[in-house]
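In response to a reviewer's request, we include the raw inputs and outputs for one of the modeled complexes. The two entities were modeled together in a single run.
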Amino acid sequence: MKPARQIPARTVYIVLTCGAALALAGCNDGSGDPKTEIGANPTLPAVQQFLWPPMHLARVVGWKQDEKPSVPNDLKIQPLATGLEHPRSLYVLPNGDVLVVESKAPPAPSPKRPKDIVMAWVESWVTSGGSDGPSNRITLLRDSNGDGVPEVRSVFLDHLNSPFGVALVGNDLYVANTDAIVRYPYTPGDTKITSPGTTLTPLPGGPIDHHWTKSLVASRDGSLLYVGVGSNSNITENGIEAEKNRADILEVDRATGRFRVFASGLRNPNGLSFEPQSGALWAVVNERDELGPDLVPDYLTSVKEGGFYGWPYSYFGQHVDPRVKPERPDLVAKAIVPDYALSSHVAPLGLAFYDGTGLPETYRGGAFVGEHGSWNRQVLNGYKVVFVPFSNGKPSGIAQDIVTGFLNNDDQARGRPVGLAIDKSGALLIADDVGNTVWRVTASDQASTASR
Amino acid sequence: MKTAMNPMRPALTDEPIPPPTGPFEALRSTAQIAGHPIHPMLVPIPIVCFIGALVTDIAYAATAEMMWTDISAWLLLVGLVFGVLAAIAGLTDFIGNRLIRNQSPAWPHMIGNLVVLVLAFFNVLVHSRDAWTSVMPTGLILSIVTVLILPITGWLGWAMVYRHGVGVVR
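The model returned the following structure tokens for the whole complex.
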């Protein structure tokens, strides 16, 4: 039996050596400079697949007294409201009242495989206190004199179902819950809505509801609503049948509630907004994970009617994802290359075009993007608000870091930016769902002096 | 009258049971419950799970239906957990009795099954990938190699019990 003893022993050695090498490769993710992946022509590395994907989650520590994010010299930042419960998006009403959408993730579906249990556990220690206190409501903030201190703070709408998007058309206020768009009657000056609301249209919701935030915007003439519906998986691992009407932007007829797919292949589209100069619909999109620390860049893009943007079959145009079967070369061929890469895993969830006048000249017409931050790479990426300059309705320069300091020096999360809005005075508002704060960015005294 | 009794049933007598003298008693298991070795009770579970995972991997490769790779992932995890428990019981017997260790199939049986567990461990990780590459091609290859090793180590294990009498009490 001697030979029989030696052969398996060698096999063990080879397997262990390969295993150790692979495990090490997984620990040092070898990521490149995230800045090379910003703009219209990102450098895309080859696909990497892992035994254990690179994971680095910023542990939540919250903001200590008097701590706040950092901004450039021409800006200053103050909290508009604190002590919120998982504020995720913002909407400014015509009278200047700010709606803060506080939202909890819908209940997790039953695990389909062991990985679901592991990932749920991993995610459980990086979310904010949103799961504890009352959430799934909209809080109204009224700061009539624009001094950054609201005189009124009231629960505007309560008992919602994981809400995210809000849009007002005339006196109809639409709230995009995770499973439906609901219409409420709104009278200017209201600080509370008690009406139960009317469902305009159901949206793809549970029981899986992987990407649950439904971004909402009304067309300029108010006849149509656009709603972002994220995919129900990273890359079809919950089955293609779970993806019906998902990874899409739906166009909803406001009069009837009937909807159609306006654009598809957008893995998790958020921040739906109209670019002020061109009037085109834009969105920020969270791309797929687990192909490497530098794949796939999340992006900011104009959304063309009938356009297909790749998910799940390909990314950034015609780069085929090896994980999707059956393949669809016909769809890959027509996949649109997005306009502007934001770098991999930054998780953009907020977008606001700057059409105000309160901030310095350089920000006018450009786009602010709220980057919630990465988990799928060793070197954290995102966790900040960036500014993308625009000219003639297109991005015209490299994204600049505008609001940073959401991470402390130990890579712990004091906050994480999500939704953005521009208030009536032209200040930039940032929903911070981990710091449970709404931040307000205004021109600094230095900037106001210079512009005079 | 012993001769008058059913030969299939051992006679009840008042005679004392003879003290252990043969080789069988000397090969007794250390990890055992009332003389029943634990290792052979556990080994069917990983064997069935790993064979099942190969079947569901093949089903996934043929259909791209996610249900099959989800089942593979569960089977591999359960197989790995019970495989480790079986290994602990088996190693206890192996270390606990020099005479078991000296049986010629003991070493290749142990090493082969450790290879199976290492392969299954990596296969669990591969199956935690999303969609197609959770199986194709690495997962399927690992499942095939695992199942090819099992009859060899199984044969050696059965030889230990049925030919050498490891763990057998008379």
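As requested, we also summarize the result in words. The two ends of chain B are 23 Å apart (CA to CA). Chain B has one domain: 32-163.
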